[in-house]
Automatic annotation (TrEMBL):
Residues 35-46 have a biased composition (Pro residues). This is DUF4231 domain-containing protein. Keywords: Membrane, Transmembrane, Transmembrane helix. The chain crosses the membrane at residues 147-165, 177-198, 288-308, 320-340. Residues 1-53 are annotated as: Disordered. The keyword Membrane applies. Residues 7-20 have a biased composition (Polar residues). Signal peptide: none annotated. The keyword Membrane applies.
Amino acid sequence: MSHEDQTPPSAGTPNLTIPVSQPAPPPGAADIPDRAPPPATPPPTREPVGARDGILRPIQESDYFTMDPEAIQVISANIDQYFNQALDIFPFWETENKPDRFHVLFTRQIEERFPVEADIRGRIHGYGRRVFAALLVHVGIKRLTQALALIGFAVMAVLGPTLFADWTGGQPQGLGLAVLGMLITAGVFYGVSAILFVQYRFRLENDSYELSREIVQRTRELQNLFTNARALSDQAETQFQMDGKGWGQRALYLTRLVMWIGARMEYLEKFAQMELWRVRRERYWMRWIGRLSTPLVLVIWLSVFAFWPAPAANEVGFRVLQLVALAMAVIVSWISYARWQTPTAAVKDKLGLDGWVRYASLDVDNTIGDQVRRDKERLVEYRALTRGR
């Protein structure tokens, strides 16, 4: 379909899985009046989705290869959102305040140009935010378990010369029981932390697998749509044998559709790359927070425990237990930071990038170029044939 008709499509187009886009800008990098600022993030839940099994609603090829002029108008308006939308060098929604971060600016541009892909982008964005939220909880729980273990060591050191000594009937036995309590506390800390990490890792891997399944579904559907649209341009000859102008208009629409589907695949990849970049950056900075918060918890604990008054019953024994507790606290703090870190390699494996259909595999440039080549060859053959008559 050409750019001759820029009338916005009506909202009543029946039975289409393709959203009715905002009014598309005219060709020539011209802008439209009263242009709405694009959203900074994809909508978290967007139809069409399957609510029960969580799988995105499949692309209906009949929506794209229809002969209904109204449906073609809706699709053409979506195509124009990408090809006619000039890049905002200075975004009109920004003020004199702090400009958008680049990933926000990039997301706004994609949201405006590809509203049809908002459902899968919402899933990708939601995945990234869930990973970050789980990372915050994971780091917070690690510091909490570290603090509880350190408090347990301090309690054992205080109770050793007093309560434990009274229970066992002697100071040596009380001190030994306090050391045993510290070891048990360290073991409980390790066991609880390991169990929580297994749950954290399982959740990350499960979310990664679910997202990968939906991306694989969408990219394969786009690949099939691309392949069929490429073939239909020539196959339409049988439908328009005596209507050259109709065949030309149909071929124009299908060629634009092929280029747009390729662009959808490309920007879906770019959006996924950007969201996963955010996840990696957030993990990097959370590791720095861990590097700072782990010794901070230890220093706060030590600043209180070091000045704790020694029991009159056995001050020397208490000081010895303080040294043992300090050694245990240092070991536990190091383990709390060094172990049970976010398994990015496992997440990467579960995402299964090798199973995604990539934009480069579509070979868009050679596909369009080969179509032009075959048309030129057929034109020359037709001219040679008519000259021979």
